[in-house]
Design goal:
TIM Barrel, alpha/beta, binds pyridoxine-5'-phosphate, globular, 8 strands, 8-stranded parallel β-barrel
Length: about 280
């Protein structure tokens, strides 16, 4: 269940236990800005501003803001993360590669203030367009255990989540490494949903959904929080939001894409409704 103290946003709001939370990934707001302003520094770093996006997402009903500070800084920049850590109106979830540099950045921020309240460890490949597969926790147990322990020991504590494939072996390894939560990679489910045209009579879609259900059940039976994300959209999100014990969904591309036409506030509010419609 949500630890009420940890679940407070920077603004001090409480989030009721048991509610399905939406983490809005605003990386692509920075992607758009970087398309024009890459390499420019200074007091006016350009638009659109991720911090403004965080405020708009809050007004649409988001519960968490997620950003990924990538090693190559292709979208979110260090200054964005600092501004969000200082002024984000919601809980901040830092997606990060499992590296000493990123652990150091997260801990420095926590020495200065209450955010990020959560770190989600993800694999990072320089050539990938976005995160492609889950973290191989089973293959890197000892190194990850040490990183998780350092993050959890941040002043005031930090929730640490592993982004993993829906694979019981990875879930068990995440528990052994000390993670508080597992974010199940919904990419394969989303791909199956798209190829099936959302037709639940097709075995290919039902199989991928069942893999999520089985892994989700294992996450919960081992006492971890259940999160999910990647390639979720307005059509496929309902069945994931309806999974037993699902606590958080982390969604970026679909929301930012819709925001181009409707504005971010509306795109977030519509996603909140779609999440509940499974
Ligand atoms: N969760 C994780 C761990 C991710 O790496 C990403 C993509 O950055 C997302 C969720 C959001 O995925 P999407 O942008 O496809 O909604």
């Amino acid at each position: 269940m949500v630890d009420a103290a940890r679940a407070r946003g920077n603004g001090g709001r409480r989030i009721p236990c048991g509610m399905l939370l939406l983490g809005v990934n605003i990386d692509h707001v920075a992607t758009l800005r970087q398309a024009r302003y890459r390499g420019q520094a200074g007091p006016l770093p350009g638009e659109p501003d991720p911090l403004r996006a965080a405020h708009e997402a809050e007004l649409g009903g988001a519960d968490i803001i997620t950003v990924h500070l990538r090693e190559d800084r292709r979208h979110i920049q260090d200054r964005d993360l600092k501004a969000l850590a200082a002024s984000c109106p919601l809980r901040l979830n830092l997606e990060m590669g499992a590296t000493a540099e990123m652990v150091g950045i997260a801990l420095d921020l926590r020495r200065a203030g209450p955010a990020p309240q959560m770190a989600t460890l993800v694999p990072e490949g320089r050539q990938e367009v976005t995160t492609e597969g889950g973290l191989d926790v089973a293959g890197h147990g000892p190194a990850l255990r040490e990183m998780v322990a350092r993050l959890k020991a941040a002043p005031g504590g930090m929730t640490v989540s592993a982004f993993i494939d829906a694979d019981e072996r990875q879930v068990e390894a995440a528990r052994a490494a000390g993670f508080d939560a597992c974010e199940l990679h919904t990419g394969p489910y989303a791909a199956a949903f798209a190829s099936a045209g959302g037709d639940w009579s097709l075995g290919s879609l039902r199989r991928e959904h069942q893999r999520l259900l089985d892994a989700g059940q294992r996450v919960r039976s081992l006492g971890m929080r259940l999160h999910a994300g990647h390639a979720l959209n307005y059509a496929n999100v309902g069945a994931v939001g309806a999974m037993p014990g699902m606590a958080e969904l982390h969604i970026g591309h679909a929301i930012v894409s819709r925001a181009v036409f409707t504005g971010l506030r509306e795109a977030v509010a519509t996603m909140k409704r779609a999440m509940a419609g499974g």
